[in-house]
Structure formats: structure tokens, C-alpha cells
Design goal:
The complex is a heterodimer. Chain A is of the alpha/beta class. Chain A has 23 helices and 16 strands. In chain A, strands 12-11-10-13-14 form a 5-stranded parallel sheet, sandwiched between helices. A 4-stranded parallel sheet of chain A has the order 3-2-4-5, with helices on both faces. In chain A, helix 1 (12-22) crosses helix 7. The longest helix of chain A is centred in the N-terminal third of the chain and has 17 residues, at 129-145. The model of chain A is unreliable at 453-480 (pLDDT under 50). By secondary structure, chain B is of the alpha/beta class. Chain B has a 6-stranded parallel sheet, sandwiched between helices. A 4-stranded parallel sheet of chain B has the order 3-2-4-5, sandwiched between helices. A 4-stranded parallel sheet of chain B has the order 7-6-8-9, with helices on both faces. Chain B is globular and about 60 Å long. The mean pLDDT of chain B is 94. Classes of the chains: A alpha/beta, B alpha/beta. At the A-B interface, strand 1, helix 2, helix 3, helix 4 and helix 5 of A face helix 2, strand 3, helix 3, helix 4 and helix 5 of B. Strand 1 of chain A pairs antiparallel with strand 3 of chain B. Bound molecules: iron/sulfur cluster (2 copies). One iron/sulfur cluster sits between chains B (21, 23, 42-43, 45-46, 49, 106-108, 139-140) and A (33, 35-36, 96).
Chain lengths: 534, 417
């Protein structure tokens, strides 16, 4: 048993729903108690979809448990097939149904429904949403493609067969799905990017695909694994069975997009992309080089997201925006190895956790000036008075915007520049607040370009201020309450610009603790400052 | 209520139900009693449900959480009990300000027959009065949406002190402002001892006894009422305080039960009713003659339909309720117009076919259906808002009507050429 106040991922059957709802012509019969239909509103409200997800729930109640729930399952399956006439049917269980073991999948397989049936085994007590999505996509494709798998030892066509066949090369875009972060626009951006390089898109899946499209997956010359959380297992399976090579670089950021293009072109035997393409097609490089961005140098940033977006963000932050990454982590245990490697490159230890309190604590300890995270980090950051931008699911309705807002490709980099820099205080304001702190309008912690939105209290890391945030202070005084700030110490601390004040407070306290100093005066603060600047 | 009307037989359907489970009620109960903690014993699905329903509120001070069952807990109940005790111990050590702990049962905990009542007893003994631990079920297999509140309140009834003195006890969550308003109105009538369940502090429980008269603010508290009746309380028959008519009848029924002079009651209520009706006038013009279809959700549907028909002139196509308690609806049903089609339970696909066939002007439904129906061209009002908004009382009648007029206004307002 594990106490959870907030969960980064839903149960695995929600992942399966994401696959079904992303596709056309697929229906999902879910054996689940009355009440589990709440998941519909993830699609109708957060994704703002104009139709119900293609899911039929058995919605059993306590009184059904005495009777024949298997009969209920069969009835639901038959009715769903009759009513929705799907081209493929997914059948599975939610966590409660898993306990009563009606085996809905095998029931469906025995029913002669006239459509391909995929029986889903998603262990709800050990796996989570992304795993469920990946497994569902994999099982669905495997089921539909089984008969096509060439016998072992057969010659597999190479990625350059397009030349012999006298056509343009074509690739699959795998992984984009509903409730993924900005998938809708990432697909559009990549279509454009690929078209510019003379590459066609064979199939995009699961988003927008029909079962018939999945049957065409082996016709591609390469697979682009855009969201490894969802498409990783499928890409590996296609590679093993059909020999289709996989490009695993995720094109988020300038460097990653350029690398992605180089890899893809080399694989397909195309001319390598022009070196200047990024500078010509994206504004991020110039915006980041321009003098206005100088104040971004060394800004301390804390990153927590799904593995794909966390790794991409770390690269952009450290190499393309000149930030200092002070924390990197992910809730995606399946991709923990990759995140650890990325963290190691930055001299950090990755935080792999799905406990948001632990993440909040790590955030407080790192005392960053900017947080790049999920919906939850937005709120931890708000609590701590730190500017923040959302870079990954889980997301809220505002992260499914009406406007074009990709993360991938050249335009994605433009979007990223704007949305990450926006929460930070603009350079001029930063200087003026550092110099004059008695202004009645531009008070400490005020971000006037946000219309005065975030106004953290004078001590951003201390006990939060209002009813909404009454938790135990995360970082006020570490090792016991023996430390005391004298009036002169406090006064000096308040002279530090607010966005680095948290860091200075922590450092000073650590320094005082180390030396057994009980009272922090202004001198202690400067000693600590000198100590840490070495 | 002299009037009676003839209603056709209730349509009873079984099939897919598109409703919330009782866990959802935690979303408002934890705000009402800030010194309580709601610990769901369930799965990741349950945790995911609450955070989806609570939306942005999840990030406020966490006063609810889920003990997520793992594979080990499923393998052996002995282990699960130990685990639960350990987890609760940790939680209470970390959060010493918690006064009442609700252990909330879910579908998984019910199916594996984890005995939360026993667990509550065990922990109570161990905590020796420092916190009170109670339990109820919010599982989808047993409860629908607002029935979760009924369960929570029922679990508190044994803890109420006994007191035979006469008092009025209002049962069911009211918004703070609405509650204060009712108390001051009752005071004006000379009814001084008025208490509420749930209280604002979980430790500040009202007493109960033979002198207690129950006035139901919400229609979904059937089990609570029965538990209170077993302790000597008596229910005051009244419609629910929605709209001018319902609210006045509700307050008047309470006053009558305490033998207050009707003239004094009228002196308080008449000006309110007069003002309330005036405020309703423009909204009535908007809603009059519009055809309304309510899908089952909270059990508020019947009183809402009554208000929207009688005070706003809407026509009722179908009034769905997840559960129909005839006793608690005895004062409402006769106020529905003749021929009103009631339905209890749901087969959502068939019900949607009826919606499409009858082409109502406004559909009251859950959030899983609202946008899809809008896309089909129906104006909708999502129902969960009705549980989160101050809608009770004469002064709120116009606001309540406005909730239904707004989607219609909006449709007229928007134009694309
Ligand atoms: S409004 Fe404030 S908390 Fe929200 S994203 Fe912007 S800077 Fe962050
Ligand atoms: S319906 Fe049951 S399993 Fe689903 S969230 Fe509610 S209590 Fe949990």
C-alpha cells in the first residue's frame, strides 16, 4: 500500500483509452464498475473533444456481482459491436474487474464477432498509464500484422529501397496520442519538416489512424519513434520482425532536430541537411544569441517531466538557452536509464520518482529560478514562488491550446523560447528591482509583464502564506531549529534579488550548519557567499 | 401540498451508466470540514478519479489521498490490514492537525472485502481519542456521486452526542453563505436552535435526540436520515429549498414543526418571496416554453425540474435520476406537471437516442456528454456545477435560473458571420 496524494499517471486502462480515442474505427469494451466513466472527461474536457471516446463500459454494480458478470460482459461486447461497427475491437479490464476475473478478452475471442479482437492484459496494480498505452498500441499492431510477418531468414527490404522503387522515401510517425503533450501540432510540424526534405509520411499512429492504416506500417522505410513512452515497444517489434530501422532521436530543440534530420537522411541515403537550416528556419538561435538574452545566462532551472520531454528540455536549457540545469528528473520509470544518462552529462543525479512531494522537496532544495515541469510542478512552483512553464503531460486544459503550439521541429523551438522565457523577469526589470527596492508598484517579486501575476512573499522558500498552501515549510530551517537569523542577517538577505534569494538563504544556512554557527548575521551571509563562489 | 399529479410509470433502465462514483463527494466534503482527512483505500484509478474531478483544487492543502493497493495487498488480507495501519500511522504522525479520519471504501477494497470498519475500530483504539476514525463506502459499485456524502454523514451519526432538547437540524452540505443566510432567517422567525450536519468542524458535531427535527437541504441523504431517525429524530416533510417556492415551503415547514405563528413566518418570507420572484422575471422570459431533458447525476434532478417548470415555465421532456427515493421525494413528486416522464437508472446509449429524437432546447448532463452533445447541436448545462454552487434559498433562485439561461444566451450571442 502506498499513500498517494497526486498521481502523475493514471491506471493502465486509461493508456489503452488514449490509444482507442486517438484512432478511428477502433472501439474499446472496458469491464469496469459504475463510476469509471469519469475517464471520458479527460477527453471531452481536457482535450475538448467533440465526441465521446469510443469506449463501452460494462459499469457493473454491487448487485451484479452476485449474478453473472461474464454475461454482462458478453452483452456489452455484442451491443458495442452492433452499435459502433468497429474495424477492430479492444477488450480489457479496469482495476476492479481485474479482481473478479471474468476474462473478458477470452470471452470476446470466443464470440465470433467478425472483427479483429485484441485482448488486453494490463496489470492495474503494478503498471501505469503510459505502459498501458504502449502495450495497447503494440498488441493492436501485432494482432493486425501477425499474418504479414516474414518468415525468419527472409530478406528484408533495406531503408533505401525507395530508390529502386522509384518513389520518395516514406516514414511512420509513431507515438502521438491524445493527452500527450502538444501531439496534434508536433505531427503537423514534422509533416512540414519531412516534406521539406522530400520525405513522405506513410502512417501517423495512433493519432488519427484506422486499423487499415496500421496494416500498412511495414511499408515504411523507417519508423520515427517520436514518443518512446507510447511507441517504444512497437518500434522495437517492427524492427525485429520487419527489419524497419528506427530513428530514436526526438526532434525537440534545435540540436535535437538537426541531429534527427542528419540521422534520418543518413539512414535513407538522402543528402545531409544543410548546416544553416536551423538558423534559417527557427528564430530560437538568434533570439538566444541576441544581447537581450544575456541575462538568461546561468539561470538556474529545475526540470521534471516524462522522460522524453525532460531529456529534451535539459539539452535545450543547457546548450541552447545557456541556463544552468540544477535538477533533472522524471516519473517515467520505463525510461529511467536514459534520464540518468542525461543527468550524468550535466553532473547531476536524476530524480526518478512518482511521488510529487518528493519532487517538490527536491525543487525547494535546488532553489531554482525557473521550473520546467508538468501540471503539478506548476503548482509546487507557485507555492514556492518560482516562475514555471509546463513542458509535459500530465496536462491541464490550458495546455491544449487553440493556437498552433508544437514543441518539435523549428517552430517548436520558437514556441519553447517564448514559453520558457516569458515567466522569467525581463532583464531591465530585474536590474531595477535589484537597485531600488522601495518602489510602491514594482515590489519585490513582482513580474509586471505578467500583469503582476506571481508575487512571491519576501522569503520565497519560507512557510507559504495562505490557506491554499498550508503545508509544513519544506526548507525553512534544515537540521533542527537551532539556526537563527539576526536582524542584520535578515536585512542583508532581503537585499538579495528575490529570484536568487532562496538559493542564498539555503547556502548560508548550510554554511552556518557546517561550521556550527548558530546565529546568522550579515557577515555570515557574505562569508557563505564567498565560500560558495569559489 | 394539496395538489397531486398523475405521472406515467417510471422508466427503469439498466445498461451503461455515465455517472460519477461516491468518491467524488470528497471534493466538496473536504472543503466543508477542513479538520478532516479523507483517505481512500483503493487503486490508482480511484486516485486518478479524484484528481480529475478536483481539477485544480488538488494542489491546495492536501486533505485527501489514496492508499493505493499493491499486488502484495491483494495476495494476503493480513498484509493489507497491517499495511493500512502502518500507512495511517505515518499519515497521522505527519499531520497531527487532523481531527477526523474518514477511511473511504472503493470498488477494489469492497471486492477484496477489506474490512475498513474493523480497521477504523483498530486505529481508534490505538489513537485513544486523539483522532476519530470512521469509515464509509464511496465505491462505484454501491454509490453514485452525491451518495458519497450520504455515506460520510451516516458514518458520523453514531458520534453525535445525545440531547433530547428541541432543535432544528439541517442535513446536507450547504454553501457557507447560504447556510448563514438560512440561520439568520430562522432566527428572525424565532427559531434559535438550528444546527447543521455536516458541521464546519468535524469535531463540532451537533447533538441528536427525540427533540430533533430534521430538515433536508439535499435530497440525497436517505441513509443519514434513517440513521438519525433511529436516534429519535423526526423528518420534517418538505420540498427542497430550490427556487422561491421550494425555499419558502421548506422554511415554512420547519417553522410549522416548531409551532411558530404563521403570521410571523409570513412576515419574514413574504418580502423575500416577492423579491425573489421579481428577480426571476427576466429569466423566466428567457426560459419559458423551452424544453428540458435531465440526465441522471446527483438526485437533484427532480427538485430542479420542479423549479424550472413551475417558476421558470420550462417544459419537461424527461427527468432522469440515478436513484429515486419515493419517501424523500414525497413532497416533490406531486409538484411535477402531469405526465412528466421520470427515469431511474440509465442505459446511456438508449437515453441519448431519446435525447436526439426529442430535440430538447437544453440538456442537463455530465461533463463526459456535454461537449459531444454541443457538437451535435444541443445546448447543454453540465450538472456537476449544481453541486458546487450556492443554489439554495429564495435569494439564490435567480442565480439558479441563470445557470440554465446562460447556455441559451450564449448560443444566441455567438455569431460567425
Ligand atoms: S502563471 Fe505563474 S505559475 Fe502559472 S505558468 Fe505562468 S509563471 Fe508559472
Ligand atoms: S468507480 Fe470504483 S474503482 Fe472507479 S474510481 Fe470509483 S471507487 Fe474507484
Amino acid at each position: 500500500m502506498e499513500l498517494t496524494l497526486w498521481t502523475y499517471e493514471g491506471p493502465p486502462h486509461v493508456g489503452a483509452m488514449r490509444i482507442a480515442a486517438s484512432m478511428e474505427g477502433v472501439h474499446y469494451v472496458l469491464h469496469a464498475p459504475q463510476g469509471d466513466t469519469y475517464a471520458d472527461l479527460l477527453f471531452t474536457m481536457i482535450e475538448r473533444r467533440d465526441r465521446r471516446p469510443p469506449v463501452t463500459y460494462t459499469t457493473f454494480q454491487a448487485r451484479d456481482l452476485g449474478g453473472d458478470t461474464a454475461e454482462l460482459v458478453k452483452r456489452s461486447i455484442q451491443q458495442a459491436v452492433d452499435r459502433f461497427k468497429p474495424e477492430a475491437l479492444l477488450v480489457g479490464e479496469s482495476c476492479t474487474a481485474e479482481l473478479i476475473q471474468d476474462q473478458p478478452g477470452s470471452l470476446a475471442c470466443g464470440m465470433d464477432l467478425g472483427v479483429p479482437v485484441v485482448s488486453l492484459e494490463l496489470p492495474a496494480y503494478s503498471k501505469k498509464e503510459n505502459w498501458g498505452a504502449a502495450e495497447t498500441l503494440y498488441q493492436l499492431c501485432r494482432g493486425l500484422l501477425k499474418s504479414q510477418v516474414p518468415a525468419p531468414g527472409t530478406d528484408r527490404p533495406g531503408p533505401e529501397r525507395w530508390k529502386e522503387e522509384n518513389r520518395r522515401p516514406r516514414v511512420n510517425l509513431l507515438g502521438p496520442s491524445l493527452l500527450g503533450f502538444r501531439c496534434r501540432d508536433d505531427v503537423r510540424e514534422l509533416r512540414g519538416l519531412l516534406a521539406d526534405h522530400g520525405i513522405d509520411v506513410n502512417v501517423v499512429a495512433p493519432l488519427g489512424a484506422r486499423p487499415a492504416d496500421l496494416i500498412r506500417l511495414p511499408q515504411a522505410d523507417a519508423n520515427l519513434c517520436l514518443y518512446p513512452e507510447v511507441a517504444g515497444p512497437l518500434c522495437s517489434w517492427l524492427e525485429r520482425n520487419f527489419g524497419t530501422p528506427v530513428v530514436r532521436t526526438v526532434p525537440i530543440g534545435i540540436g535535437a532536430t538537426a541531429q534527427f534530420l542528419r540521422e534520418l537522411c543518413a539512414l535513407l541515403g538522402l543528402e545531409p541537411p544543410e548546416l544553416r537550416e536551423a538558423d534559417q528556419r527557427s528564430r530560437l538561435p538568434w533570439y538566444s544569441k541576441s544581447v537581450d538574452s544575456t541575462y538568461l545566462t546561468g539561470k538556474r532551472v529545475f526540470i521534471f517531466a516524462d522522460a522524453t520531454h525532460a531529456i529534451a528540455a535539459a539539452r535545450i536549457a543547457s546548450r541552447e538557452l545557456g541556463f544552468t540545469v540544477v535538477g533533472l528528473g522524471s516519473y517515467s520509470r520505463e525510461q529511467a536509464r536514459e534520464v540518468r544518462a542525461a543527468a550524468k552529462e550535466l553532473g547531476l543525479e536524476a530524480l526518478i520518482s512518482d511521488d510529487y512531494l518528493e519532487v517538490e522537496q527536491a525543487m525547494a532544495q535546488a532553489a531554482p529560478e525557473l521550473v520546467l515541469g508538468t501540471q503539478m510542478e506548476r503548482h509546487s512552483a507557485k507555492r514556492l514562488g518560482i516562475p514555471c512553464a509546463v513542458i509535459s503531460a500530465p496536462l491541464h486544459v490550458q495546455d491544449v491550446p487553440a493556437r498552433y503550439a508544437p514543441q518539435m521541429g523549428w517552430e517548436g523551438a520558437n514556441v519553447i523560447f517564448d514559453s520558457w522565457v516569458h515567466p522569467l523577469m525581463m532583464g531591465l526589470e530585474e536590474h531595477l528591482i535589484g537597485m531600488f527596492r522601495h518602489d510602491f508598484e514594482f515590489v519585490d517579486g513582482h513580474l509586471s509583464h505578467l500583469g503582476g501575476a506571481a508575487a512571491p512573499a519576501a522569503q520565497p522558500m519560507a512557510a507559504p502564506v495562505n490557506e491554499e498552501t498550508e503545508v509544513t515549510p519544506l526548507s525553512a530551517t534544515p537540521e533542527g531549529g537551532s539556526l537563527r537569523w539576526t536582524a542584520s542577517g535578515e536585512a542583508e538577505l532581503s537585499r538579495i534579488p528575490f529570484f536568487v534569494r532562496g538559493k542564498v538563504r539555503r547556502n548560508t544556512e548550510a554554511y552556518a550548519n557546517e561550521r556550527g554557527v548558530a546565529e546568522i548575521t550579515e557577515e555570515t551571509l557574505y562569508e557563505a557567499k564567498a565560500h560558495f563562489s569559489r | 401540498m394539496a395538489q397531486t399529479s398523475v405521472l406515467p410509470p417510471v422508466l427503469r433502465e439498466s445498461g451503461q451508466r455515465e455517472v460519477f462514483c461516491g468518491l467524488t463527494s470528497i471534493v466538496w466534503l473536504h472543503r466543508r470540514m477542513p479538520d478532516a482527512f479523507f483517505l481512500v483505500v483503493g487503486s490508482r484509478t480511484c486516485a486518478h478519479l479524484i484528481q480529475s474531478a478536483a481539477g485544480v483544487m488538488i494542489f491546495a492543502e492536501p486533505r485527501f489521498g489514496t492508499a493505493i493497493l499493491g499486488e502484495r495487498d491483494l495476495a494476503g488480507l493480513a498484509d493489507a490490514n497491517e499495511e493500512l495501519d502502518r500507512l495511517v500511522g505515518d499519515l497521522l504522525a505527519r499531520r497531527p492537525e487532523i481531527r477526523t479520519l474518514f477511511l473511504v471504501g472503493s470498488c477494489p477494497s469492497e471486492v477484496i472485502k477489506l474490512d475498513l470498519a474493523k480497521a477504523a475500530e483498530r486505529i481508534n483504539t490505538r489513537m485513544q481519542g486523539r483522532v476519530r476514525v470512521v469509515n464509509y463506502s464511496g465505491s462505484g459499485i454501491e454509490t453514485t456521486f452525491t451518495q458519497g456524502e450520504d455515506g460520510a454523514l451516516t458514518s458520523l451519526v453514531p458520534l453525535l452526542p445525545s440531547n433530547p432538547e428541541p432543535q432544528l437540524l439541517i442535513v446536507g452540505t450547504l454553501a457557507d453563505g447560504v447556510e448563514e443566510r438560512f440561520l439568520s432567517l430562522f432566527a428572525r422567525m424565532g427559531l434559535e436552535t438550528v444546527r447543521t450536519l455536516p458541521p464546519r468542524q468535524s469535531t463540532d458535531l451537533p447533538p441528536v435526540g427525540p427533540g430533533t427535527r430534521l430538515l433536508l437541504a439535499q435530497p440525497f441523504v436517505a441513509d443519514t436520515v434513517r440513521a438519525l431517525e433511529r436516534r429519535g429524530a423526526q423528518r420534517i416533510a418538505a420540498p427542497y429549498p430550490l427556487g422561491v417556492e421550494g425555499s419558502c415551503a421548506w422554511m415554512a415547514a420547519a417553522a410549522a414543526a416548531f409551532g411558530i405563528d404563521p403570521e410571523r413566518v409570513a412576515a419574514v418570507l413574504d418580502p423575500l418571496a416577492e423579491r425573489g420572484r421579481r428577480a426571476l422575471e427576466p429569466l423566466r422570459r428567457k426560459l419559458e416554453g423551452k424544453r428540458l431533458f435531465l440526465l441522471p447525476d446527483s438526485q437533484l434532478e427532480i427538485p430542479l425540474a420542479r423549479f424550472l417548470h413551475r417558476e421558470c415555465g420550462m417544459e419537461l421532456v424527461e427527468v432522469g435520476t440515478p436513484y429515486l427515493d419515493r419517501q424523500l421525494m414525497a413532497e416533490e413528486l406531486p409538484l411535477l406537471p402531469e405526465g412528466t416522464q421520470l427515469s431511474e437508472g440509465q442505459d446511456v446509449e438508449k437515453q441519448l437516442e431519446r435525447v436526439r429524437a426529442s430535440r430538447p432546447d437544453l440538456v442537463v448532463c455530465g461533463m463526459g456528454l456535454a461537449n459531444p452533445l454541443e457538437a451535435e447541436g444541443f445546448a447543454t448545462k453540465w450538472s456537476i456545477e449544481l453541486v458546487f454552487s450556492p443554489i439554495h434559498g429564495c435569494d439564490q433562485a435567480a442565480d439558479l435560473a441563470e445557470l440554465f439561461a446562460r447556455p441559451l444566451n450564449r448560443r444566441e450571442l455567438l455569431q460567425w458571420n
